[in-house]
Amino acid sequence: MKIFSNEEIARLEKQTLATEDITTLDLIENSGEAVAAEISARWMPGKRLLVFAGWGNNGADALCAARNLAQQGYRPEVYLFNIRGNRLTPECRICRDRLLESCAGAVAFKEITGQEPFQWPEPDADSLVIDGLFGNGLTGVLPRSFQVIIQQLNQSGAAIVAIDMPSGLLSDWNNDNSRENMIHATLTLALTAPRMSFMLSDNANVVGEWKVLDIGVSHKAMSQAPYTFYLVRKSTVTRYLPRRKTFSSKADYGNAVIAAGSYGMYGAACLAAMGALRSGAGKVTVKSAGTGMPVIQSTVPCAMFKGDSGSDCITSLADVADCEALGVGPGIGTETPTIDALEAMLKSRNASSKTVVLDADALNCIAQRPLLLNYLPVLSVLTPHAGEFDRIFGEHNGDEARLKRALEVSKFHKVIIVLKGRFTAIVRPDGKVFFNSSGCPAMATPGSGDVLTGIITSFIAQGYKPEKAVFIAAYVHGVAGELAGAQNGEYGTTAMDIANCVGVAIRNLSNESKL
User: CA 288, CA 292: separation in Å to the nearest integer?
Assistant: First the structure.
């Protein structure tokens, strides 16, 4: 699903109006009906309902929703902000008049022009508020008077439904905008498409739960429109997971090599190896410190073991530097011999233009020796969580700042960066960002990222280009986490549970499930 900015959606709406038998007012009526349907499915008519509408078309959406809800038995209190009495868009004026004409007895209506002091209606925790103040019409910081209103709404404890965008939130970058001055929605009903800002944990308390409503914008126009941000969903991934051919063997599905583990950290190597095996690699080899053989061979007997001359840590990667698919990092530690081995391997693979997947301690090694960034092969994959990213690239004050920095780093070094999180962001050198939609809180468990490293390496071994392997792997990993969470609960899920569900996740996503 493409993620569009407010400006891009405005262009799509204009294109729709030019090519379809539809008007702006029709789109607003569609919005009002869809918002009302969603609210009526969640809240009963007896709940106190307050509607805050601005003077633009977001306000028109809110007025239309109020009219639909009033006709369903709700008794909305509507506050229309028309400062100086002359600011309403033509559509907003029409929606106001329609509301008053058809629902006068069922609606308490107040138009605020600024000529009299605004009497605060005192919503409380038992109230439901519809936010139609600014939505996608906002391009900068909210006026101070509306900041006060929004803060009071947030402090009221009322459930808030934001139409399209929580007022105060911008669609993409919010820079230093204070979240205190944004509506903290319980539910955001995005019109036409989600926004990039929904994907960042910085805005989680602002956006709340979100859902996209189809209001009639041309699907053809959306399919042809360029995009920068994309939300990966099941339909995106299924096409890349065909059924395997009847006459095939393990030789058809590649050799994934996982360089992982050190004394006391061999579990990480086992988890990565299991992720690679469960996601279909034809052969999996674990390169690890010598003392890891009993643990790895007994825990993951389907993987081969290649021991290092160093008994407690990896001291050389020369014997795996030429393999086609190599994942390095889970549990390798940051001893100097290991960093030296990583440097030599990166130089070798850079010279031969072979990508590498780098995770966990491989990233911590780079943080200790930043010069290694200069040796990253083109389209290599780095999979940091927030702490690992900051150790390499400096402290950042949130996901938005990390994403901006990741875009710079990805373009400069020509690598793929997988910023792990609720909506894992896959940042490519061409400037495109793919957000992963699968996953659940059960995946917040140690070793989950090691499993992902194995899956990514496995798909590269199977012949997928790194840029495709990464978003397929991230989605499969998330679905496996959902399955494991359903079986073991959010508290009780382990990374091995996730690894063991990877095969079932692929079956559910691929044509295997259509037998």
Answer: 6
For the entire predicted model, the pTM comes to 0.95
**Lowest mean per-residue pLDDT among 140-149, 334-343, 399-408:** 140-149
One-letter identity of residue 486? A
Mean per-residue pLDDT over the chain, rounded: 96
Angle at 226 between CA 223 and CA 230, to 5 degrees: 80
Distance CA 228, CA 218 (A): 19
Write the DSSP assignment of 288-318 as a string of letters.
E-GGGHHHHHHH-TTSEEEE-SSSSS----G
Q: How far is CA 145 from the centre of its chain?
A: 33
Contact 299, 328 (CB under 8 A): no
Check: CB of residue 455 under 8 Å from CB of residue 476: yes
Pairwise CA distance, residues 424 & 501, whole Å: 19
- What's the CA gap between 138 and 143, in Å, rounded? 10
Amino acid at 273: A
Q: 69-78, 100-109, 308-317: which range is least confident on average?
A: 100-109
Straight-line distance from the first to the last Cα atom of the chain, in angstroms, rounded to the nearest whole number = 27
φ and ψ at 242, to 5 degrees? -70, 160
* Tens digits of residue pLDDT in 358-409: 999 999 999 999 999 999 999 999 999 999 999 999 999 999 999 999 999 9
pLDDT class of 515 with cuts at 50, 70, 90 = very low
